[in-house]
């Protein structure tokens, strides 16, 4: 409920809340700028001195006002015309126009009333109300996420967007609550919803017969420092019994200009003082540093909005579809999920529903935010974890195994782990295995031995669910019906064929970008935004199990390109390599952020063989900044399967590709790509010493041979693939 209260106002009113916070942050700069720019009154200057200086310069002075920033403005009426100016209190001379600068007026109007009238004011107030709702619900959610109020300052866990959202919220929430509450108060007072209890001194009349005294003869003027002045009104020359009126923080007094006597006095009421403090807290006038801090806090709103939106999208994709998710603090069984592509969430949902039906209080959430303190009543933990790369964690769960290994004490509730993977990878369920080892290292009790699910096998899952049921003493026998991924239709526009002569029939297939709705474009969903190296899942006809291919293009190229080799008997590769322009396939996008060149100007050594050149070609095509990219490409024969052979010369000419080395295994000297690397050892070492990154894409055997060769070539431990990997400078996309 609380989450909904946080999410929907956030999403619906994002634009309005953003506008208010950014304009608020801009306006917070003005009071400080004003304080720094206007001359301040000397500490010894009295109201009498100031009044005299101004009157000398402008005998027709009607009023002097001093703002909290120290800015003194005088109004006068002389020779039949009114005038006003900012005054230098040291001389009484004019130093500028009192009208606010265009920027200040514009941003104030935008902030207060969206450049409209009362309708804008009410909308802005609604924005402030929503900000208050978001901040208040966010406060409780942060406390919940951290595992209680006493852990408010504990370290935030999880993927970057989640951490950033929590950290910023902790920094800014107090300021946002203050600004929205004070903003609401100010709008309410504009609409007279707050009683005006300002007290005025009782009316009084001056003795009309007396000539006005010099200001320093008036005791109150001589005693009051000019720094305490708020407003001084002079008597109207047309009304002989009119009085002087002096307003300071302490109150307002009416004074007889002829006798210097105070005729009446009023101190401000509680409400008036409260209103003043609220005005100061909201505008920063009179509290400029606080204003700047509040402005800085407001600036966190755009980032909070964006990271919150990212979390909503991630939750919508997976977690939000978990029905009857019990609060973490009340859960008996906690199911934690580490997934990249989302299919493991589908299994988690089946498990969640099965356990709930069996009468358990179950909470299912992402492993990335795991913190045992969030689950004080947990009796059992279950981790469902997919594996990526070479036995590595899905992107969001990186670092969790290391954290688990350091848990002291380990949770008392026993743990069951189920790994999801693919037996054709050498590190089958390698990440789940690392988690199991980490749990052992921490001394976390095992509920049952680790289970595995190969290629999302429903049978494997059912078998494991029975074992889990036995361990929990519950009748579990779960059937998982995989959800068909939501696909889009891709139409082939062109194909280039290679390799038939060397028994490696391969095609570069180029599809048109599917049409995107405006919403998909704005939110970057599906094919709206992707990079070379991301994956496309293709659902072949006759199967609900997707096959993944690395993308050889980015959305900026305006097409979707993949390289496919036809495997004997391969269902998907067979269908793809038979496509003709105009034919369609069903596909969906899966981001692969772990395989991207680092942003830097340093060289990149691209190593690929066969269809593995696809994403590498995509990086080269996208290399508009002409970073030095060196491609080592293993093929069978230059006459037959040199994929992108027609493009390399142009890319080299355009500066997109700095070096190209091919190694052909079925012609001439029978070279493999690792032989080409060995021949270039000197050059490679120099590039690595210059901070180069290595990216390898292709078959598993090729990748292993490349790793071994580079290990041989490395002269120092710092250049070894293991060290480079740990630094994120050695990336592999292997199949
Ligand atoms: C790029 C890529 C790399 C993978 N690497 C491994 C691996 O090293 N070991 C393994 O057992 N499974 C590996 N898999 C298989 C996935 O772990 C498996 O398909 C899992 O069910 C995906 O779950 P998810 O959709 O929840 O992310 C890999 C899959 C892909 C697409």
Protein described:
The protein is an alpha/beta fold and 735 residues long. The chain folds into five domains: 2-32 and 105-195 and 286-314, no CATH class; 40-89 and 225-266, no CATH class; 318-472, Flavodoxin domain (Rossmann fold); 488-590, Translation factors (Elongation Factor Tu (Ef-tu), domain 3); 604-734, 3-Layer(aba) Sandwich (Rossmann fold), CATH 3.40.50. The protein is 38% helix and 19% strand. The protein is built from 22 helices and 24 strands. It has an eight-stranded antiparallel β-sheet with strand order 4-3-2-1-5-6-7-8, with helices on one face. Strands 17-16-19-14-15-18 form a six-stranded antiparallel β-sheet. A hairpin with a 2-residue loop joins strand 6 (244-248) and strand 7. The longest helix has 31 residues, at 160-190. The chain is elongated and about 120 Å long. The structure holds flavin mononucleotide (FMN). Flavin mononucleotide binds next to helix 11 and strand 12.
């Amino acid at each position: 409920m609380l989450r909904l209260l946080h999410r929907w106002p956030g999403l619906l009113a994002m634009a309005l809340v953003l506008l208010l916070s950014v304009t608020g942050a801009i306006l917070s700069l003005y009071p400080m700028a004003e304080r720094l720019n206007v001359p301040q009154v000397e500490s010894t200057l009295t109201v009498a001195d100031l009044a005299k200086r101004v009157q000398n310069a402008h005998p027709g002075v009607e009023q002097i006002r001093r703002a909290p920033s120290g800015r003194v403005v005088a109004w006068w009426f002389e020779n039949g015309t009114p005038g006003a100016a900012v005054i230098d209190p040291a001389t009484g001379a004019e130093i500028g126009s009192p009208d606010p600068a265009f920027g200040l007026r514009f941003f104030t109007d935008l902030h207060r009333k969206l450049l409209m009238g009362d309708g804008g004011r009410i909308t802005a107030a609604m924005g402030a109300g929503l900000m208050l709702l978001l901040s208040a619900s966010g406060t409780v959610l942060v406390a919940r996420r951290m595992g209680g109020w006493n852990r408010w300052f504990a370290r935030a866990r999880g993927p970057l967007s989640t951490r950033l959202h929590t950290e910023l919220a902790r920094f800014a929430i107090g300021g946002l609550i203050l600004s929205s509450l004070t903003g609401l108060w100010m709008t309410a007072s504009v609409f007279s919803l707050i009683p005006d209890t300002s007290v005025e001194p009782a009316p009084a009349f001056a003795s009309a017969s007396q000539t006005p005294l010099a200001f320093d003869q008036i005791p109150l003027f001589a005693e009051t420092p000019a720094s305490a002045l708020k407003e001084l009104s002079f008597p109207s020359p047309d009304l002989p019994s009119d009085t002087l009126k002096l307003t300071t923080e302490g109150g307002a007094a009416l004074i007889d200009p002829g006798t210097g006597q105070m005729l009446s006095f009023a101190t401000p009421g509680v409400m008036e003082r409260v209103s003043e403090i609220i005005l100061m807290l909201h505008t920063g006038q009179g509290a400029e540093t606080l204003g700047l801090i509040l402005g800085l806090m407001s600036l966190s709103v755009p980032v909070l909005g964006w990271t919150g939106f990212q979390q909503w999208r991630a939750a919508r994709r997976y977690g939000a579809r978990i029905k009857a998710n019990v609060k973490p603090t009340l859960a008996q069984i906690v199911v934690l999920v580490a997934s990249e592509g989302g299919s493991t969430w589908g299994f988690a949902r089946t498990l969640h529903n099965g356990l709930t039906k069996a009468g358990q209080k179950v909470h299912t959430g992402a492993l990335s935010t795991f913190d045992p303190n969030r689950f004080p009543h947990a009796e059992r933990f279950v981790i469902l974890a997919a594996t990526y790369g070479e036995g590595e964690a899905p992107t969001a769960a990186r670092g969790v195994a290391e954290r688990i290994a350091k848990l002291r004490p380990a949770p008392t509730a026993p743990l069951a782990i189920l790994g999801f993977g693919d037996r054709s990878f050498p590190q089958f369920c390698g990440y789940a295995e690392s988690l199991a080892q980490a749990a052992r290292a921490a001394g976390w009790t095992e509920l049952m031995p680790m289970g595995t699910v190969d290629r999302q096998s429903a049978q494997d899952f059912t078998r494991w669910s029975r074992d889990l049921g036995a361990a929990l003493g519950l009748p579990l026998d779960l059937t998982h019906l995989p959800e068909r991924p939501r696909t889009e239709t891709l139409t082939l526009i062109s194909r280039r064929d290679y390799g038939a002569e060397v028994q490696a029939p391969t095609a570069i297939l180029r599809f048109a970008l599917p049409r995107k709705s405006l919403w998909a474009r704005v939110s970057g969903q599906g094919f709206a935004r992707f990079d070379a190296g991301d994956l496309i899942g293709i659902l072949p006809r006759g199967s609900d199990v997707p096959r993944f291919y690395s993308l050889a293009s980015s959305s900026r190229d305006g097409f979707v390109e993949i390289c496919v080799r036809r495997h004997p008997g391969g269902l998907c590769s067979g269908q793809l390599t038979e496509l003709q322009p105009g034919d369609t396939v069903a596909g969906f996008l899966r981001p692969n952020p772990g395989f991207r060149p680092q942003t830097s100007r340093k060289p990149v050594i691209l190593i690929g063989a066969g269809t593995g050149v696809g994403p590498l070609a995509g990086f080269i095509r996208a290399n508009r900044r002409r970073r030095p990219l060196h491609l080592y490409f293993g093929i069978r024969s230059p006459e037959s399967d040199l994929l992108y052979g027609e493009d390399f010369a142009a890319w080299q000419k355009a500066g997109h590709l700095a070096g190209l080395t091919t190694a052909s295994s079925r012609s001439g000297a029978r070279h493999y790509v690792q032989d080409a690397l060995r021949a270039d050892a000197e050059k490679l070492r120099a590039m690595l010493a210059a901070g180069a990154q290595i990216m390898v894409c292709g078959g598993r055997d090729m990748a292993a041979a490349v790793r071994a060769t580079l290990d041989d070539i490395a002269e120092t431990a710092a250049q070894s693939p293991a060290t480079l990997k740990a630094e994120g400078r050695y990336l592999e996309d292997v199949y």
